[in-house]
Specification:
The chain has about 350 residues and is an alpha/beta fold. It has 2 domains: about 25-170, 3-Layer(aba) Sandwich (Rossmann fold); about 175-340, Alpha-Beta Complex (L-2-Hydroxyisocaproate Dehydrogenase, Chain A, domain 2). Helix content is about 45%, strand content about 15%. The strands form 3 sheets. A 6-stranded parallel sheet has the order 3-2-1-4-5-6, with helices on both faces. A 3-stranded antiparallel sheet has the order 9-10-11. The protein has a two-stranded antiparallel sheet with strand order 7-8. Helix 4 (about 85-95) crosses helix 5 (about 120-135), helix 5 runs parallel beside helix 6 (about 150-160) and helix 6 packs across helix 11 (about 315-340). The radius of gyration is 19 Å and the shape is globular. One of its GO terms (cellular component) is mitochondrion. Keywords: NAD, Oxidoreductase, Tricarboxylic acid cycle. It catalyses: (S)-malate + NAD(+) = oxaloacetate + NADH + H(+).
Length: about 350
């Protein structure tokens, strides 16, 4: 038993050292909206392990106080409080938050696309965005709820309607696409995934996810390339099918959300050169009517500091980008139209 306890402590220490570089000088309040769900629970756990977080506010329509009580026993300094459903509870959870993560919504089931989730999740995100626009208009908003290609524009339109929209502080979390791309290429090459870094641009749904292997100096051809691209674009389906209708990618998505939050915290606390892929309002393809796009973004104290261009791509990657842009334009317009018709 003593050995098991020592091993557990060693693992916790390793998680803290590897995932988060502590900064005791500046700490912050982080709110998770949808903390009782499949993504929200492990996300809350990972944020509790982050020494940069001083206060963790967990909100959901049910279950958040229980999650808060559970993770509050973890031996890190942050204070955790759970909030049940209600306008006043939500306002209290959000007040003073510097980062708000929204994983709230219903998960995908077998055969369901992210767009099938649209109506339910659009309504949920709209209401949470309204509350955030009132309670913490200057917070960094991290949208995880699918379909991200549409829920980010919905959030933007809500903030615009309240007169508090800041494009530098609204992010769609696409980190999981990069995590998958690196993991999957390591399986093809039999390498350590920690040493692989594949640039992924576009959006966060099917054909809008475009891995750029050429920028990592990796060359795949024929069926091997097609299989890799398909797996990166539709990797979430593997999880949905494997869980037999009981859920979608929750644990890996929580890890990706926590990683992005950590990068944002690093940048907010003065670290330079922090770059993460994220879906933001972008000028890169604005001339084609695509106003939001995921690419590598340099983060700073005020959120988005620099949006990196896509860079040189192969002819095949350009074909993937062309399909991506067409679909993205439709997804973005769908979100903007919906929220204007359903304010």
């Amino acid at each position: 038993m003593f050995a098991a306890r020592k091993a557990s402590q060693s693992v916790l220490g390793a998680v803290n050292r590897r995932a988060f570089s502590a900064s005791a000088a500046q700490l912050t309040k982080v709110a998770v909206l949808g903390a009782g769900g499949g993504i929200g629970q492990p996300l809350s756990l990972l944020l509790k392990l982050n020494p940069r977080v001083s206060e963790l506010a967990l909100y959901d329509i049910k279950g958040a106080p229980g999650v808060a009580a559970d993770v509050s026993h973890i031996n890190t300094k942050s204070v955790v409080k759970g909030y049940d459903a209600g306008a006043e509870s939500l306002k209290e959870a959000l007040t003073g938050a510097e980062i708000v993560l929204i994983p709230a919504g219903v998960p995908r089931k077998p055969g369901m696309t992210r767009d099938d989730l649209f109506n339910t999740n659009a309504s949920i995100v709209r209401e949470l965005a309204k509350a955030a626009a009132e309670a913490c208009p200057n917070a960094n908003m991290l949208i995880i709820s699918n379909p991200v290609n549409s829920t980010v524009p919905i959030t933007a339109e809500v903030f615009k309607s309240k007169g508090v929209y800041n494009p530098k502080r609204l992010f769609g979390v696409t980190t999981l696409d990069v995590v998958r791309a690196s993991r999957f290429i390591s399986q093809v090459k039999s390498t350590d995934p920690a040493n692989e870094s594949v640039t992924v641009v576009g959006g966060h749904s099917g054909a809008t996810i475009v891995p750029l292997l050429s920028q990592s100096g990796i060359e795949l051809k024929g069926e091997e390339l097609a299989a890799y691209i398909k797996r990166v674009q539709f990797g979430g389906d593997e999880v949905v099918q494997a869980k037999g209708g009981a859920g979608s990618a929750t644990l890996s998505m929580a890890m990706a959300g926590a990683r992005f939050a950590e990068s944002l915290l690093k940048a907010a606390q003065g670290e330079k050169g922090v770059i993460e892929p994220t879906f933001v309002e972008s000028p890169l393809y604005k001339d084609q009517g695509v106003t939001y796009f995921a690419s590598n973004v340099e983060l700073g104290k005020d959120g988005v500091e620099k949006i990196h261009p896509v860079g040189k791509v192969t002819a095949h990657e350009q074909e993937l980008l062309d399909v991506c842009l067409k679909d993205l334009k439709t997804n973005i317009e769908k979100g903007e139209k919906w929220v204007k018709e359903n304010p």
